[in-house]
Amino acid sequence: MTAAPPAVLPRKLLVPKRREKLSIHVSSLVVESAAKDTAGVYALLNTSAEGLTADEAAARLAEHGPNVLAKDQRVGLGKLLWRAILNPLVVLLAVLAAVSFATGDARAATVMLVMILLSVGLKLIQEAKASSAAAKLKAMISVTATTRRGGVAQEIPVAHLVAGDVVQLAAGDMIPGDVRIVQAKDLFVIQSSLTGESFPVEKYVVERTPASTAPLELTSVAFLGTSVESGSAIAVVVATGKDTYLGGMALAIGEEPAQTAFDRGIARFTWLMLRFMAVMVPLVFVINGITKRSWGEAFFFAVAVAVGLTPEMLPMIVTVCLSKGAVAMGRKKVIVKRINAIQNLGAMDVLCTDKTGTLTMDRVTLERYCDVALREDDSVLALAYTNSHFQTGLKNVLDRAVLAHEETHAHARIPELTKVDEIPFDFQRRIMSVVVRAPDGKDRIISKGAPEALFPRCAAFQLDGQRLPMDHPHIESLKKEYEKLSADGFRVLAIATKDVEPKAPNAGTEALYGKADESDLVLNGYVAFLDPPKDTCAAAISALRGHGVSVKVITGDNDLVARRVSKEVGLPTDLVLTGDDVEKMSDEQLAEAAEKTDLFARVSPAHKQRIIRALQSRKHTVGFMGDGINDAPALHAADVGISVDTAVDIAKESADIILLEKSLVVLDEGVVEGRKVFANIIKYVRMGASSNFGNMFSVLGASVFVPYLPMLPIQILTNNLLYDIGQTAVPTDAVDPERVKTPRSWDLKELTRFIVFIGPCSSLFDYSTYFLMLYVFHCWDLSTPEAAAHSQRLFQTGWFVESLLTQTLIIHIIRTDKIPFLQSRSSRTMLLMSLFIMAIGVAIPMSPLGGYLGFTVLPSLYWPLLALTLVSYLMLTQGVKMWLLRRRWI
C-alpha cells in the first residue's frame, strides 16, 4: 500500500486564479490533470487508488467547504421580520405611534400599534410559508456518490466529496464534480446540460486532445452536471463546488435580479400616497388650528388623518394575495421560488421556450422505415431491428427507438439467425455492423450509419426487387431522396447489407470480420427518427394564445427539426432566425425581428439572452422556460424564469418558478393563477387610492366648514382599523374570467384616471352627510356647552358610520367590471366580512365602547337617510365606472 498522502490538500492546488467578473472558468488543476497519466493524477491530488481516509476527507472538507454550487437561500425568521418591518408605510405608522405616545395620546398610539402588528404579523406568517416552498422541493432530492474511502466503497452525499476522492461511476450516475477518468470501460457521458448536444460523448483514460483545447473537449475529464449514459469508470475528483466549470457559470449569473415591473408599481403607488399625505396633513393641521383655535387638537387630528391616508395594509394584502396564489399554484404542480414572480407570470405576454421535452416528448421514436424511394418497406425495418438486437456495444437513443417500435418483432426473424460477429461503432466511421448467419449457411453483414458515411461504401442499391449500381447519377438522385427526410426534420440512418461466404477463424484473433468488410454494400433503405410533439402541446399553446401569451421557440437544435415540430404544434414557421442571423443583427434590428419571429434555431446561450432582452426593450413581459446549464443566463435575464424539478441545479437556482411537470398545460394554469393574484391586489390598490383621494376633499371641507373637529383622532383610527380588517378578505375574492383572459401589467396612468373619477364620488356623499347632520339633525347648535358637546358627538357619530359603511360597500363595485351582486358575486368570505364590519360599525355607537370612543346614539330618521345615501353612492360609482370602461380608460 502506498504511503498516506498529506491530510490537507495544498490550497494553491485547489483555488483557481482570480477571475474577471462573469467569466466561466475551468480550474487549472483540471487541465493539468488531463495531461498526466494515472500515477501522475494520484500524485497531483495527493491521493491513491484506495482513496482518501475518513480523517483526510474530513480535513479537506473543513478547509475547502462542501461540494455545493450555492448555499441554501432560505431566509431566516429574523431577516423575514426585518423585511416586514422595513416598509415605508409601516415605518410611517411607527413614527406616528411614537409621536402619539410622546404627546400623551395613548389610545391613538395603541390603535396604531394594533395596525402595525396586524400588517407585519400577517406578512411575516405568509412570507415564512412562501419561503419554505423551494426548500421543501430541495429536500425531496437526495444525491449520493459511490466513493472509495480507505479502500472501501461507500455511498456518501455529493456535498461531502472533496478533491482527491476516488469515485466509481456507472450508467445513470451523475458526475459529482469535475473528475479525471483513471479507468474506463465503454464510458459514454451525456454533456447536453453543458453543451446542448443530444448525443453522448465517449471518455477515455488517456487524453485524446491537447491539454490546451476548449475545456469541454477534454476526453479524459468529465464535468459536474453531466451524467453517465453507459459504461463504467473510476475517476478522481479534481474540483468541487464553485471551483468546477458549472460553479464558474453559477458565479457568472450571481447578480441580484432586477426589480420587477410589479415591485416598481407598488413602490410608485406607495410614494404617491405618501406625497398626498405630505401635502394634505400640514394643510389639515393649519386649517384646523386656525378655525378651531386649538393647535393641540389640530395636531392630533392631523396625525389621525395621516394614519387614515396611509395604506398600511398594502404590504400584507400583497403578501397574502401572492402567498395564496403560491399555494394554489403548488396544488397544480407549480412551485414558486420568488413570490413576486407570480404577478410577472400573470403579466407575461411572451413565453420563450426550449423545444426538447417542452414541446416534444423528450423521447426519440422510430417514425419512418422505407426503401430508397421513401416508400414504406417492412424488410428495412426487419434489417434495422436485427442490427440493433444483436449489437452489444452502446445502444444509443436511436437503437432503443428501433427496439421499442411496436411492429419490429413481427418482421424480424431473430430465432432463425445466429450472430457471428460485430464491427463496433466509432465516431470516425459513423457506422455500426453486425454479422449474422442465416439458416442457409451464408453470412450477412447488416450495417447502419449516417447516409453520407454509408454511401461511399455501397456498390449498389435495392429497389423493387432490382439491384442497381451506385454510379454518380444514381448517387445524386438517392441523396435528394434522403435529404427530403432530413428537410422534414427527421434524423436519418441508412441501412445496407452484404451477403458473403462464411469466414474461417483467424489464428490469434477472435474477430472474423473488420472494417474492411464494410465495402461493396447494397443500400436497402432508411429508418427515420423524431422526438414527437406531446399530445397536449398544441392545445396548451392554443390556451396560452387564448390568454394573450405568444409562444416563441428558442432552441439549439437545427432549424429543420425545429421547424417540423413547431408546425405540428400549430406555431407559424414562415420566419425563422438562426444563431448566425442573430449574431449579425444590432440590438435594434433584433428587437424588431424578434417581435415577428416565432422560431429561433441553432442559437447559443448568449443569443438566448439577447433575444429575451430585445423583447423586453419593446415593453414585453418575457418568460423563459429551460432546464439546462446553457439556459441559466436566459432564465436570469427573463422577467420570469421557469424551470423543472429535473433540471440541473444551476437552472433551478436561476429560475423564479419550478414546474413539477415539464408541461405547457401546467404553465397555462399558472398564468391564470398569476392574473387572479394581480386582479385582487389591484382591487385593494384601487380601493385605497380612490378612497384616500376622496377623503382628502372630505377632510379639507370639514376642516373649513364644520365648527369643531369632524371626527376625533381615536374615531378616525378606529374607522381605519375596522376598514383594514375588512380588507383582509380581498385575497380570497373570486375573479371574473374576463380579468384573466389577457395579460395585466401595472399601469399608473390607468390607476390615476380611476382615482381622479371615482375618488370624488365618495366626497359628494360625505358632503351630503355633513348637510344632513348640520341642517336636518341641527348639529350647528353651539348655543350652550352641553348643546355644543351633543352636536359634536352626533356629527362625529353620523360621519363615522356613513364613512365606514360606504368604504366597506364600495369594494363590491370596484372588484368587478360587471354589475355587482347580479352579474358578478364576491367570494363568501369577502361578503361575510363586509357584513360583519358593517354590523360592527352600526353597533358601536349603541354599545358601551361607543361612549369610550366619543359616540352617541343616532336618531331613528338617520338610518333610512343613510340607506338612501348608500344606494345613491353605489349607483353613482357604478355609473362612473361603466362610463370609464366604455371609454376604455380603465
Structure characterization notes:
By secondary structure, the chain is an alpha/beta fold. The chain has 32 helices and 23 strands. Helix 6 packs antiparallel against helix 7 and helix 13 packs across helix 26. The longest helix is centred in the C-terminal third of the chain and has 42 residues. The N and C termini lie far apart (81 Å).
Total number of helices: 32
Mean of all residue-level pLDDT scores: 82
Radius of gyration: 37 Å
Strand content: 5-15%
Number of strands: 23
**End-to-end Cα distance:** 81 Å
Any idea what the shape is?
elongated
| Strands side by side in the biggest sheet | 8-23-22-21-9-18-20-19
Major β-sheet, in short? 8 strands, mixed
Poorly predicted runs: 1-25, 133-142
Q: What percent of the residues sit in helical stretches (DSSP H or I)?
A: 40-55%
Oligomerization: single chain
Structural class: alpha/beta
Task: Please describe the topology of this protein.
Blueprint: H1 11-14, H2 28-34, H3 38-44, H4 54-64, H5 77-85, H6 88-102, H7 106-139, E1 144-149, E2 152-157, E3 166-170, E4 178-190, H8 192-195, E5 201-202, E6 221-222, E7 227-239, H9 245-252, H10 261-292, H11 295-309, H12 314-331, E8 334-336, H13 341-347, E9 350-353, E10 365-370, H14 378-390, H15 397-404, H16 408-411, E11 418-423, E12 431-437, E13 443-449, H17 451-454, E14 458-463, E15 466-469, H18 472-487, E16 491-500, E17 521-530, H19 537-546, E18 550-554, H20 559-568, E19 576-578, H21 579-584, H22 587-596, E20 599-601, H23 605-617, E21 622-625, H24 632-637, E22 640-644, H25 649-654, E23 657-659, H26 664-705, H27 713-727, H28 748-776, H29 785-814, H30 828-843, H31 848-853, H32 862-886
Parallel strand pairs: 9-18, 9-21, 14-17, 18-20, 19-20, 21-22, 22-23
Antiparallel strand pairs: 1-2, 1-3, 3-7, 4-5, 4-6, 4-7, 8-23, 10-17, 11-12, 12-13, 13-16, 14-15, 16-17
